[in-house]
Amino acid sequence: MDRDQILLTPGPLTTTLRTKKAMLKDWGSWDADFNKITAKIRTQLLDIIEGHEEYVVVPMQGSGTFSVEASINSVLPRDGHLLVLDNGAYCKRMATLTQKMGRQATTLSFNEKEPVSPEALKKALIEDKTITHVGLIHCETGAGVLNPLKEISDICKEFNVGLIVDAMSSFGALPISVKDIQFDALISASGKCLESVPGMGFIFLRKAIVESMQGNSQSLSLDLYDQYHYMEKTGQWRFTPPTHIVAALSEALDQFVEEGGQTARLARYTDNCETLVEGLSQIGLEPFLDKENITPIIVTFLAPKYDQYDFKAFYNAVKEEGFILYPGKLTEIDTFRVGCIGAINHKEMRQVVASMKYVLENMMTIQEN
Ligand SMILES: *Cc1c(COP(=O)(O)O)cnc(C)c1O
Prior knowledge:
By secondary structure, the chain is an alpha/beta fold. The protein has 12 helices and 14 strands. The chain has helices at 17-21, 32-48, 64-75, 89-100, 118-127, 149-159, 207-210, 224-234, 243-259, 261-282, 311-320, 346-368, and strands spanning 6-7, 55-61, 81-86, 104-109, 133-137, 139-140, 145-146, 162-166, 185-189, 200-206, 298-302, 323-324, 326-327, 335-339. Strands 2-10-9-8-5-3-4 form a 7-stranded mixed beta sheet, with helices on both faces. The chain has a 3-stranded antiparallel beta sheet with strand order 11-14-13, with no helix packed on it. It has a two-stranded parallel ribbon with strand order 1-12. A hairpin with a 7-residue loop joins strand 13 and strand 14 (335-339). Helix 5 packs parallel to helix 6 (149-159) and helix 10 (261-282) runs parallel beside helix 12. The protein is globular and about 65 Å long. The site of pyridoxal-5'-phosphate has 12 residues, from helix 3.
């Protein structure tokens, strides 16, 4: 059937027809009409963090990682030292890309089942005075753990070190306001909780640090300082913008506002998450995390304990039913993940639960025969 599959993946995710339709028009990248869209999305993004006074936002071409890399590369001085609070795969990626950029990166490791510890950060900052910045993943999409952004931000302020936050999978769904949280850079992307298509990221930068970024970048295209100043001066992107993606994000942001903003989105995702966890528990599938650590962004489930179970086969059978799942990202344990985000609600969640039940029952029947 010519019908889109439901993506239960944390980006790309299921988008509305209205968002998709916004991509049916061609735009000239120098044209005033397109520049207006860029200006509009920048305003709407700053609205979300209540950041118009103290922050700017810089859009960047590419997937989310490009924006993380651009942030590290532009915000961290070449002799800077980043401490990454590590409880999963995305944290490790941040440390790796920092080192690739020729900067010093150290990881402070935690159990991937639990949030990182503010107390441990404090201790590390007391012990090592060479640390200039802290790297935090807000929601570690690997296992789905939410990290304590506010507490970490307060400690960074107290110790006068910079904070770089990868809020890729949380921004738009979880509350982030600069009225109570300070950071140097916070990164997200178009294809996550704003429910648009993937292809661009955006970085909130504290105005007070922007000028200090000059000359930090070792990359031409990932230089946020240049991207920012060029955009301020001309209203244009420095290199070819992803025009259709910008147009889609603009339409998605309008729908975000119409739905009721971050609180409404969180309420819908929470409903999705509860429907999913409850439904799957009834067919014997349990989350990897303890209940209190589950975030309504993505849920990691332990693989079913049948000899017959194999993720690939399970994935393909559920795909036949119209749903795209996500593999686990844990090294030690066999898991799979289900995203709660995207233009879906509890109805799709009830349907996917029913589909998984059907698929697993079939697998068991085959096993018994
Ligand atoms: C999605 C995501 C990213 C970016 O991944 P890309 O594949 O580069 O888009 C980075 N960090 C986190 C926490 C994410 O969830």
